[in-house]
Amino acid sequence: MIILLFFLAVRVFALSVHDALSIGNLLLLVTLRRYQPIVLVALYLLYTALYFYLAMKEQRQHALTQENTRLQIDAQQARRYRLLQQRYENQTALNARLQERQRIAQDVHDLLGHSVAASIWQLEAARKVLPTQPDRADAMVAGAADALRQGMERIRSAVHKMRAEVPNLNAQEMALIIERFRRDSGLQVIADIQESELPLTPAQWEALNANLTEALGNVLRHAHARQVRIALQMLPGMVRLEVADDGVGARDMVEGMDVSGMRERAAALGGSLMMRGDQGMQVITLLPREGDAA
C-alpha cells in the first residue's frame, strides 16, 4: 500500500512536469493494479529511467537550440560590424580625398591668386599711363610679367610636391588592402613591400593594387591555404608583385575572367602576368619602370 501511494504521488508530481508520459503511466497503473507490487516497482524504475533520459535529451536539445541561436546572432553582428567597418573606411577615404581637394584649392589660391591680382592691377595702371608715360607703363608691364612668372614657378613647385606624395598614398592603399585581407581572412600573411627613389606612375599603382586585390580574392575562393606571401620588389627596369600561397594549387589552370583581367591590366602597361600552381599558387605581375635602365 505504501509503495502504491508513493508511486501515485510521484506520478502526480511527474504529471505537472511531463504531461504525456505521466498520463500514460497513470493509465498503466490502473491496468496493472492487480499485479504484485514488485512489478509496479520495476515499472516505476523503468519509467523513472525513461523519464530522466527524455528530460536530459530535451535539455540537450534546448541547449543546442540556444547555442545555434547565439551563433546566428554572433554571425549577424559580425556581418553588421564588417559592413560598418567597410562604410567607415570608405567614408574615411572619401574625407581624405575631400581634404586633399580643399588643400589643393587653397594652395592654388594662395600661390597664384595674389600674383594674378597684383599683375592685373599693374596692367590696368600701365594702360592708364601708357599715352603719357610709356617708360613707366613698360616697367609696370614688366613687373606684372615677373609676378605672373613667379606665380607659375610656385604652382610648378607645388604640383611637383603633390606628385611626390602620390606614391606614398598609393603604397598606403596597398598596405590597407593587405591589412583588410589579414583581418577578414584570418590567414597568416607575410608582406614585404619595398620602396624606391624612382616613383611608380599612378597607372602602375592602380594596376598593381587591382591585381593584388584579385589575387587575394582567388586565395580566399579557391586556395584553401593557411599562409599567404606578398612581395613588391623594385628591380632594375621593372617592378615585380608576387602573391603566393601554400594551398592546393592547380596544375591544369583554366583562366577565368579574373585572371584575364589581371593579364590585360599588366599588358596595357607593357607588362606581363605569370602563374604557377604546382606548389600552391604563385601569381606574379611584372611591369616596366619608366625612366629606369634595364
Describe the structure.
- With 294 residues, the protein is α+β, with helices and mostly antiparallel strands.
- Among the domains are: 2-78; 187-294, Heat Shock Protein 90 (2-Layer Sandwich).
- The chain is built from 6 helices and 5 strands.
- A hairpin with a 4-residue loop joins strand 4 and strand 5 (281-288).
- Helix 4 packs parallel to helix 5 and helix 5 (202-223) packs antiparallel against helix 6.
- The protein is elongated and about 145 Å long.
- The model has no long low-confidence stretch (mean pLDDT 77).
Unreliable spans: none
Dominant shape: elongated
Taken as a percent bin, the fraction of beta residues is: 5-15%
Element-level helix/strand string = HHHHEHEEHEE
Global mean pLDDT = 77
Which structural class matches the secondary elements? alpha+beta
Number-wise, the strands total 5
Measured between the Cα atoms of the first and last residue, the distance is: 107 Å
CATH class of the domain at 187-294: Alpha Beta
Radius of gyration: 39 Å
Helix fraction, binned, reads: over 70%
Physical arrangement of strands within the biggest beta sheet = 1-2-3-5-4
Largest sheet: 5 strands, mixed
Under the CATH scheme, the architecture of the domain at 187-294 is 2-Layer Sandwich
Looking at the structure, the CATH topology of the domain at 187-294 is Heat Shock Protein 90
According to CATH, the homologous superfamily of the domain at 187-294 is Histidine kinase-like ATPase, C-terminal domain
Count of runs of 4 or more consecutive helical residues: 6
